Amino acid sequence: MSDVINTQRAKKQALGPYGRVGKSLDELDDRLGLARGGRTFMDKIFPDHWSFMLGEIALYSFVIIMVTGVFLTFYFIPSSALVTYHGSYLPLDGQKVTQAFSSTVNISFAVRGGLLMRQMHHWSCDIFVGAIVVHMARVFFTGAFRKPRELNWTIGLTLLILAIGNGFFGYSLPDDLVSGTGIRIAYSIMESIPFVGTYMAFFIFGGNFPGTSTIPRFFILHVLILPLVILGLLGAHLFLLVRQKHTQFPGRGRTEKNVVGSPMFPVFMAKTTGFLFIVSGITALLGAFAQVNPIWQFGPYDAARISYAVQPDWYMGFLDGALRIFPSWSFMAFGHTIPLEVTIPAVIFPGIIFNIAYLWPMLERKFTKDNEIHHLLDRPSDRPKRTAAGVTVLVMLSMLHIASSTDVIANFFHLSLNAVLWGMRILTVILPIVAYPLTYKLCKELQGVRGAGKRKTPNIVSRTAEGAYVATPTPAYGEDVGHELEATPVPAYIESEPEEPLESGVRTVDR
Amino acid sequence: MTDEHRTPVSLSGLSSNDPRLQPAARHPELVERVISVCFIVGTLCLAGFGACYWIDAQPWKLGATLGAGLLFLGIGIVAWGKYLMPRGPFVEERHTLANSDADRQAFAAAIVERGGSVVQRRKLLGGLLGGGMGIFGVVVMFPLLRSLGPLPKRTLQHTDWRSGSYVVDQSGRRVEVGDLAVGSIETVFPEGTENSDRGQAVDQTVLIRVSNEAFTTMKGRETWAPHGYVAYSKVCTHLGCPVGLYEQELQLLVCPCHQSMFNVTNGAVPQFGPAPRPLPQLPLYVDSSGFLRSQSDYHQAVGPGFWERS
User: Fold this and answer.
1) ipTM summary value
2) Distance from CA of B121 to the nearest CA of A (A)
3) A49-250+267-316: which CATH architecture?
4) What does the alpha-carbon distance between residue B63 and residue A107 come to, in Å, rounded to a whole number?
5) Residue of B279 and A502 predicted with greater confidence
């Protein structure tokens, strides 16, 4: 009996202090040499500020997009060949539709769980692009894009463009009435580019609209090529994040030389895994209760038919709005046409916006002559010009977004379409112009507010010999006046609990 | 919680009884109970999801059970991480990314000196190889692009309407002069294209009967609208959407995409919206048997603008 116990103990001892897990890790380290790097990774510190969660939403939506998307590829047929629909959705019975359309209707009605997967796929894409935009706004307004992170800003912006593009390709695949109209518009936008436009359109779509190759080509772009590029860039984005470590807001103990927060294992891992579940859960609930893109109601695409009040997915709204409110300026001379009414709002304008965004870190470095490495974030109000510029662009894009529903607004508020159109034209120009000085002024005011952007200082409340209480604020930390805050030791009179407070009649109160 | 413990420290070398390693919750047992409830409810929901899937329940039930299950598990896990794990804060030192000057110089030297000496002394080889690769690139790219589609040529400039094409509706029936009442509208095609992609996309035409007798929309188009039948290209000159709405009282054709409006009575001149050009008008005639036919193709290219459009 005791022999058995002894052998067990001996076995346990042979395994070392960390048991089987430790032994397996040793074996792994023998082969891959992971121990030191692994430990550093487990200890990697993630800041706790909520705004760092926005990028995680984007990442996890992408995970959901991939999982649900793989499910959809099992049942979707990317072909524009015509078939007669005989499925479980009776109103379409006997209609000639493309295989793409009929297989999408089948996913929605005949495949178990198919409609949920389709709706989750669509919703998570809307969330994906939205999360990227909000994450980008966070990075922009807090100056997280500054040296050394310019490259990651560039990668992130490219990811946004790819996400929008892949959203468009995916939205086009079911070949329903609304998506087909979207492709028609995309074709026309491409055609509008001077010199090369028609060639580009013919090569991309495989001929004059509607072309025969659109759906198979969009399919392979949507499920293979763009996802691969996105995955690669996402990997690079995360690699740079680990390599350069997180930025952080200034505060107690936080300096340019450290990162303060929770370690990768177990705290961050738990929080982020839970967050993946929460994002997936919310997406599933949206997919369950919020109908999106009911293509069987739109019907199959027919180039000669159209539906009323068609709006694209939200991230294309600004383009559609720009196309709606831009005046009908067409250049026609010398036997050539430049459709400025399309080229300017749909090609040149987004080109300018995205190029400014790409160049912004460089421009800011040039104008502020600030070539330092920054790991501590700015408060937006401390950088009034940058904040005002960002708000200006966001206001303009929002106005264009609203302009993409001029007809709906006119209907809803019983206004004339003309009034709404002119209203949106004026607002799109005026509001951004107003937004800049307004934001600038607001930032300046915020800077002046006592205590804004500065660490709280303790008030010393003292009782005088007569028994009256007097509160004296202690002076602000000297470094708080500047932009970057160095960690300051906490004043000694707070840390030490007064031993005999009542005798001296003075108590310090920790706020 | 005393103030001192809010000062971040490094994880490594922290004694195991350091307050920063204690859970953040004030009542860990209570939190543990709440989390257990979350996990139990979440697991039940996910089991329900399985059951719903098994019996092929309605999609909303699938989504509701899946969503609620994931949400409860997620909230539980986050709470576990937030309240029952070391509260910190912890700090990690940041090492400067830049290497020492010696390392940088060694790296630069490796590329410039070593590489330079090999390449610069063999300029001819470098030039030849570079030229070869460049030509290869062009040669590869060009046919790759060119195979993707046909050249536009003049296919955008004309449609399938010919002199004498019969006007047919979507089912292929020829339109006779008595078919449409005044004020009604029909989408028509040149006979034989009504079922083709190109017919739908390019040749589509709106036929509107505006009156009983011959109608003139513009000077020079006196014979184009016999018996009040006016025909315009249905492809919007803005972005190519079908101009599908007809406002009968104002006699306006409206494109639902971006709200361009075209006046039917005066040659479809854009009245409102972003469209820059009138819709091209199709010249019609009525043959001896009373069928509507086209005199010719459109006189301009239909649809949105492009560089080669004259």
Assistant:
1) 0.91
2) 34
3) Up-down Bundle (1.20)
4) 15
5) B279
